[in-house]
Design brief:
With 107 residues, the protein is mostly beta strands. It has 2 domains: 32 residues, no CATH class; 62 residues, Single Sheet (N-terminal domain of TfIIb), CATH 2.20.25.10. Helices cover 0% and strands 28% of the residues. The chain is elongated, with a radius of gyration of 20 Å.
Length: 107
């Protein structure tokens, strides 16, 4: 991540330049430092929170200590994500294995 020397805002890559998202200042990319940066293209799908209706939970770990409010089934797939600050507990996202209902649980 690179920050603008002019205003301190985060910069984004645009070809061979880094462009400030606030004041539009530009800086030529420093190729020596380029290896330090991680592009969003390099992130894996494991880092994405599955919150959309069509998200695939199948194959995720299974919880048998929950009860679906919609159908009463006691088994659901789940994934755990840190949705708040680091000093807060993570959130578990569930999908019922019987009816497909989704819910979240805050620890």
């Amino acid at each position: 991540m690179q920050f603008c020397d002019e205003c301190g805002s985060m910069m984004h890559a645009d070809g061979d330049e880094m462009v400030c998202s606030s004041c539009e200042a530009t800086v030529t990319k420093d190729e020596e430092r380029a290896a330090e940066f991680v592009s969003t293209d390099e992130q894996s799908d494991d880092e994405v929170i599955e919150s959309e209706a069509g998200a695939d939970f199948e194959g995720k770990p299974t919880a048998d200590d929950v009860i679906c409010d919609d159908c009463g089934h006691t088994e659901a797939w789940y994934t755990i994500k840190q949705t708040a600050s680091a000093d807060e507990p993570p959130t578990r996202f569930f999908k019922c294995k019987e009816c497909g209902s989704r819910w979240r649980e805050y620890s």
